[in-house]
Amino acid sequence: MYELRLDNTPNNPRIFLCAFVGRRFVLLHGFKKKSRKTPKAEISIAVRRRDCIIQQQEGN
After folding, report:
1. pLDDT at res. 29
2. SS3 47
3. pTM for this model (two decimals)
4. 43 band by pLDDT with thresholds 50, 70 and 90
5. Where does residue 43 rank: exposed (0-12), middle (13-18), buried (19+ CB within 10 A)?
6. Which of 22, 30, 32, 52 gives 15 a disulfide partner, CB atoms 3.0 to 4.6 angstroms apart?
7. What residues contact 28, with CB distance under 8 A and at least 6 apart?
């Protein structure tokens, strides 16, 4: 999982994304970063969404 930082934009937006097989990237969660450290709650949201996608792929 990666955290994408958008430079030269207000509010320090961040996007969590992950890479899957077949050169496919999935954007998992976006948020406005307000402190130096990424909040654990924001990471948790992205991890849950990633895990959900993995479970769906395994079911196919």
Report:
1. 97
2. helix
3. 0.85
4. very high
5. middle
6. 30
7. 1, 15, 16, 17, 18, 45, 46, 49, 50
How far, in Å, CA of 52 to CA of 32, rounded? Answer: 23
Structure tokens belonging to residue 26: 């999935």
| Domain residue ranges of the chain, discontinuous segments joined by + | 2-59
Task: Kindly tell me if the per-residue pLDDT of 60 is higher than 80.
Answer: no
Q: What is the pLDDT of residue 11?
A: 86
**Distance (Å) of CA 45 to CA 7, 10, 13, 22, 29:** 23, 23, 16, 24, 7
